[in-house]
Amino acid sequence: MDGLLLESDALKPLYRDLEALYESAKTCTKCRLASTRTNFVFGEGNPSAKLVVIGEAPGADEDAQGRPFVGRSGQLLDKILVAVGFRREDVFICNILKCRPPQNRNPLQDEIACCLPWLQRQLDLIEPRMLLLLGRVAANTLLGNTLSLGAMRGKILGWNRFECVVTYHPAALLRNPNWKRGCWEDVQLMRRHYDALEGTLNQP
């Protein structure tokens, strides 16, 4: 997995900002998903966000609109963020994959390998303090493990230079409302740690 992320080093001199990166990335044909997508879903939000929210891949609504988390799960994500003091425009929201896998199947390893350098370059440009990883697939992919969601929740985890919190994907919460309490605990942990990080930045 580390080798995949190092591919982004070759992209570093090429893009001065997110807009320039998007203009290049949106025509990507590195994997099979380019032939089935309606729209390339780059991500959106604050280009200087201190918190980046990362899911697994676009769904049908996202593929249709070219925006991340705009369906029912996106509406729930917005509510979750607001509950801990973040507006959608305060953060940056994106996915591991930028194109929808057919029938919303899990991403394949070669698709992840093609897309991860785009994500890494987004993070290089945004320079967030924290990442909120939504769901097991996103967390396993970035953290380079095969742990269960339960084994990753409830703690601050490190990946590269970022501090991460893992929680349920909003789509999973729609299917299993009894998990919302756990999600609430996770995002409260994230908010507390975020505030602590910001506090260290603002100290004289």
Describe this structure in words.
This protein has 9 helices and 6 strands. It has a 6-stranded mixed β-sheet with strand order 1-3-2-4-6-5. The protein has 204 residues and is α/β, with parallel strands linked by helices. Strand 5 (157-159) and strand 6 (162-167) form a beta hairpin. Residues 1-8 have low confidence and may be disordered.
Keywords:
6-stranded mixed sheet; 204 residues; 44% helix; 6 strands
Whole-number mean pLDDT = 91
Please indicate the percent range of residues in DSSP E strands (runs of 2 or more): 5-15%
Gyration radius, in Å: 16 Å
Assign a percent range to the helix content.
40-55%
Order of helices and strands: HHEEHHEHEHHEEHH
Structural class determined from secondary elements: alpha/beta
TL;DR of this structure?
The chain has helices spanning 2-6, 18-25, 60-65, 72-83, 109-126, 136-143, 149-152, 170-175, 180-202, and strands spanning 44-45, 51-55, 92-95, 130-134, 157-159, 162-167. It is of the alpha/beta class.
Topology (SSEs and partners):
Elements: H1 2-6, H2 18-25, E1 44-45, E2 51-55, H3 60-65, H4 72-83, E3 92-95, H5 109-126, E4 130-134, H6 136-143, H7 149-152, E5 157-159, E6 162-167, H8 170-175, H9 180-202
Parallel strand pairs: 2-3, 2-4, 4-6
Antiparallel strand pairs: 1-3, 5-6
